[in-house]
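Protein Entry — a single chain follows
Next Lines — sequence and tokenised fold
***
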Amino acid sequence: MPQYPIAWWATASLGAVVAGLNGWWTPAELGYGVELSKPKVIFADQRRIERLRDAIIPSDIPIVDLAELDLFIGPPGGGDPGLPDVAIDE
């Protein structure tokens, strides 16, 4: 799905760290991965969101449906902002 690399690229271009979790994990495994990575936001498709609902995820972590990124797929528009100037370090 094209939304996934868009979310990944946007996150990295903002200077944030991407921590990918295995989409085939059980709810318990997803909960453990979230506990270890301590995300500020979770991007997932509908199938993974259903599993995340059964996982123990802190309520203050927003879960964004990747389908919401459909608005950002396509050629750039004239009013689109440029990339942010973010210092990225290892």
Observations:
- Residues 63 and 76 are 26 Å apart (CA to CA).
- The chain is about 35% helix and 5% strand.
- Strands lie at 42-44, 63-65.
